[in-house]
Write a structure and sequence with these properties.
three-stranded antiparallel β-sheet, mainly alpha, 2 domains, single chain, 7 helices
Amino acid sequence: MRHGKKINHLGRTTSHRKAMLANMASSLIKHKRIVTTVAKAKALRVYVEPLITKSKDASTHNQRTVFAYLKDKHAVSELFTVVGEKVASRPGGYTRILKIGNRMGDNADMAMIELVDFNEFFEGFKKDEKKKSNTRRSRRGTAAKAAPAAPANTVDQDVEVVEENPESSSEEASTEE
């Protein structure tokens, strides 16, 4: 019986599955995003997130432990120098899986798995910068700020109207003379 055994075998033997996940994890660390099937991406997330957690503490023991999983010294050095520093403040959830449709040949569900902190174009990246200023807002504060802003805008609009039509006002002045 398979009670409590929830690992996805991905249709491979144990040694093939471990080698494939190690290669995919090394590629993910080096390139910051890879495209694969949804099932492999979910298996890779379970495989790589504990390794990224170990990279926060750059001890020799953690480096040797991660090397036992990845078997690629360039990926290990990239993980502990670049990725580990960038995710040091994040408590977890280092990867994101985005589904991108089906593959043309066999109609397999495809996904892109990427490291969260390395995508500057994702909309969630900008929210972190706004979060840094921890200011508390109250109704009194917003009403006081909004009240002076309204007359200033109307003044700006009046100035723009005057600036847009200086010729017409000079023509009117010349016709009155």
